[in-house]
Amino acid sequence: MDLSHARTLLPPRCGVHVEAHRPDVEAAALHALACAAIRFSPLVAPDGHDGLLIDATGTERVHRGEPRLLRGVARQMQRRGLCVRVAAAPTFACAWAVARFGRYDLSRVPPHREQEAVLTLPVAALNLDAVTVEGLGELGIVRVEHLIKLPRAAVVPRFGPRVLERLDQVLGRANESINPVRPTPPTRAQIIFDGPTDQWASIEAAAHRVLETLIGQLTTRERGVRRLHVELTRPYAVPECTEVTLSRPSRNPRHLWTLLRTRLERMNIGPGVEAVTLTASRTGRLRHTQPGLPAMAADTEQAAAAAWGELIDTLIGRLGPENIVRMEPCESHLPERAFRESSVMQPVRRAAGAGITPADRPTTLFATPEPAEALALSPDGPVISLGWRGERWRITTSLGPERISAEWWRWSAGGGVHDFPHTRRPRHGAVAISPPDRDYFAVQTETGRWLWACRQVGTGRWFVHGEWS
Known about the structure:
The chain is α+β, with helices and mostly antiparallel strands. The protein has helices at 3-8, 23-36, 60-63, 66-79, 92-101, 114-118, 130-138, 144-149, 152-159, 161-171, 200-221, 253-265, 297-319, and strands at 43-47, 51-55, 86-88, 106-108, 187-197, 223-233, 240-250, 273-285, 325-329, 339-343, 364-376, 383-388, 391-404, 438-445, 450-456, 462-468. It contains 13 helices and 16 strands.
């Protein structure tokens, strides 16, 4: 239906999101999906606007049988959020028919069983045009078995040779070829010496020259390096390889050379190096900028993000990617659960609705709250004295209390009580009730030190959970 008709069917106050149909975008996405499916077979071709044809001939031993291949394809597509139907058959046409019109989401047709597999399918399973299918239906030919019983000489004059051609392709009597995709090869630059050399100065100069060539190719494609593969070809030895991984796309020559040189110094050149090869195995799009023009706000923001990424890359090169983490907010009001650590190499996965509480929080939150003894004027009144770490502190300022309740949805009813602090969920099979609520106080000692103390409601126990520096 057209857009105006669709609007009339919706309630008056219903919000409508209208998005233009982009066949070119869908075709590009299907081509990218076909390139990703090359992991199953080197011959993959897009089929129409919603299908893939994979020639898996000769790959059965690699996947340990067609059933495992079928499950692997379906599992990989489901991980991408796609609902798929997969079929394997001796011919492309038979697999196309069974995948689109068969009874099951995963189907396999053994050799020489093509006719049996398609007999009960509608004639549309032969991938015919709508006019031909409608014409066959007017004659009562609605299934493939009806078409097979007709004399071949009577089909061509009425419906053309396409019907018998598709029928022969389904049954394996005629060949059918596909036009497989050819993924764009990764950006690559190489320099080959006249003979092997073990001079570090020559290897370093060659690597710098190859990097400049690679950056020139990336600039033409408006791409930046995310993962750089380095290979040193050595005579009579396996190549020496290493990789440089960046947190964001970059083609800054100075930054890339700093990272590359550090990795080159750790590589074993052995008796000599015959060639230096750099491959941008993973890239990302970078917006084109013209040097010499006044900087715009977007350019300034992009430069700031690039400088931040270069700092992270430098820290990763010195300390390792596992030692550089970022703090991400979580959907939790408990202080120890409000943030989580994630690797800077992973994309930001901020939970929906997660945000930072507007309340004041200490700059240092202790991993384990430390027991304390407090003296207050009343159960909910200000704290006047605090015993902590073997010393007694006189409190000059006390702000609070701030009541923070436990997250009841993380606990099941019954069982024993787990005293605070409890920062982990119980193990599988363990049963616990929600821990007591907490009343937090921001207190200042006589020396000017600000502490974040809390009282466990119902037990009277006190803890110091953090401090302001």
